[in-house]
Amino acid sequence: MRVLVVGSGAREHALVLAASHDPAVTAIACAPGNAGTAAHAEQLGVQAVDPAAVAALAVDWQADLVVIGPEVPLVAGVADAVRKAGIACFGPSAEAARIEGSKAFAKDVMAAAKVPTAHSEIVDNPAHLDAALARFGPTWVVKDDGLAAGKGVVVTPDYDTARAHAMTLLDGGHPVLLESFLDGPEASLFCLVDGRTVVPLLPAQDFKRVGDGDAGPNTGGMGAYAPLPWASPTLVDELVRDIVQPVVDELAARDAAFTGLLYAGLALTSDGPQVIEFNCRFGDPETQVVLALLNTPLAGLLHATATGRLAEQPPLDWHPGAAVTVVIAADGYPGVPRAGDVITGGETEGVLHAGTRRREDGAVVSHGGRVLSVVGIGDDLAAAREQAYARVAKVHLPGSHHRTDIALRAVEGAIAVPVR
Ligand code: AMP
Ligand code: GLY
Prior knowledge:
By secondary structure, the chain is of the alpha+beta class. The chain has helices at residues 10-20, 51-60, 71-75, 78-84, 94-101, 103-113, 129-134, 159-171, 235-253, 286-292, 298-306, 381-392, 408-411, and strands spanning 2-7, 27-32, 42-43, 65-68, 88-90, 120-123, 140-144, 154-156, 176-179, 186-194, 198-200, 205-206, 209-211, 215-218, 223-226, 259-269, 272-279, 322-329, 351-353, 356-358, 364-366, 370-378. It has a five-stranded parallel sheet with strand order 3-2-1-4-5, with helices on both faces. A hairpin with a 3-residue loop joins strand 10 (186-194) and strand 11. The radius of gyration is 20 Å and the shape is globular. It binds adenosine monophosphate and glycine (GLY). Adenosine monophosphate is lined by residues 118, 141, 143, 150, 153, 155, 179, 181-182, 186, 208, 218, 265, 267, 276-277.
């Protein structure tokens, strides 16, 4: 099987690496990729958001399976174009990708499927903002009603901060989504979906804020771990039954059947699990930990998903331990990151590349906000965490920053689902 992975982050590096361990895979390419994917995959140039260009590349390279990593190409219809060219594609249609691309669409689908989620209102006129804010908060949750790479959300107990963010969005022509605040630990559940059948992967937790102790602004994700030692053993089955399967069925009923990876971002509240958001693709950095624990050959699994054969697959085979990843971010991230710093230690085992590129002189340099995602695995979460941070210590990137508390509270047993 010839596998083409589209994207250039650590998620794509993890996908490429897992595919490279699948004995059914004869060739791997990554477009556009990064300095890390180049070690396992042919690097192909492409405008990942251009449906015709990706489809032409897939035909030209004779791909048997195209795996699309990021949301922007999916929302733009790249998966539709690849399938139209007759090639199996792991990733939803533009229609189904609206579950991530439009928060209003997602809320409508969830309401129809009776899936619990935060109460919300859309504000598109500044004259209505103050009255709407008065109906929410404190704490206020203010979102951009569109794709914002995890950075369009402000969660704050401060009215002026909430109002200022909403005004910035409105001034930029973006409708604002206000939401009720959901308390309780967050979980990310990734599910393979072939239109009908849902196969959950291990649950994970992501760290959205830039600083230790959840200080500072939201980012695309600064670290993750899997599985969740504090979760009940029946949690995943309950989430599939009550949340994911109803949404998959609702999308199919709307002629927007979902194929690919449906990612439920959840808050486990005292009222039960509630959806924070759905994403239409593998999450980053959770993918790095989930795939580190998956023994089942990945490419065959994704091909079965893309071709409607998930129900025939044997149960997934997991490594029994835990995995932790720590993101190393460039100076300035999540604001404007500084690029061009030389990275040393980037070839250390467990180091996945995100914003990196190889310079003409051979040096690997930073080329994005999240630069590396360093993965450790172990028999338990404490051991995985230790390995991840030992590997972080072997990497050097001038001016970089990373969180030192990824998975720490879980190791300490300090996370619990609130009860009423
Ligand atoms: P999103 O881009 O919608 O995933 O939001 C980014 C982050 O903001 C989430 O991972 C949560 O940490 C936080 N967040 C979003 N919506 C809510 C909510 N309704 N209640 C509490 N926290 C939220
Ligand atoms: N881990 C957050 C995201 O991928 O959106």
